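Hi C.,

You asked whether I'd gotten around to modeling the 146-residue construct. I have! Everything is below, sequence then structure, no commentary in between.
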Amino acid sequence: MPTQGVSREVLPLSCDKWATAAPEQKLEPEALGFLNYLRFVAMNCRAKPHTDLFEACALLHTEHDKTQQAHAEALMRCLNQALGKPARLYAPGVTEMTFDESWLIQLCLASAREDRASVHFLVQSRIAREHRRLITFLVHWITERF
C-alpha cells in the first residue's frame, strides 16, 4: 500500500551521499602511536594461544615485575573473550580505525585522563559483566605507564 509523501528511494551502499556521514577521527600523534603499539602487540599475539582473562590477570598480579608489554599482550590476547566476539584491528600504520579500535583508544584516553565516568560507560557498553574489572585493570596499568 503506497504512502503519500514518503520517499521509498533505495540508495546503493557506495552512494556519495553517505560518504561523509562518518568523518575520520583525527588522533593526536601520541594516541596514534599508542594505537599502533596495541596493533603491533595484537599482531604478535595472533600466533600465541588465547589466554583466559582471569588466568592472565592472576599471573600479572603475582608477578609485579611484569612489564607494560606483558600487560598489553594480556589485554590483546583476552580482548576477544571480553568482547564476546573477535575484535577487528587494522595493521600498524593504517590511519583509519575500526569501531573496535576507536572504542579501545577512547577507553585508554579516558583512563589516562582519569575520567572514571567515561571509563565506566565505555567498559559497561561492550564488556561482559564478569570481565569489566579485569579489562579496566589492564587498560589502566598500560595507559599509566605508556
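If it helps when you're writing up: The helical segments are 29-45, 53-62, 68-83, 99-112, 116-126, 132-145.

Thanks,
B.
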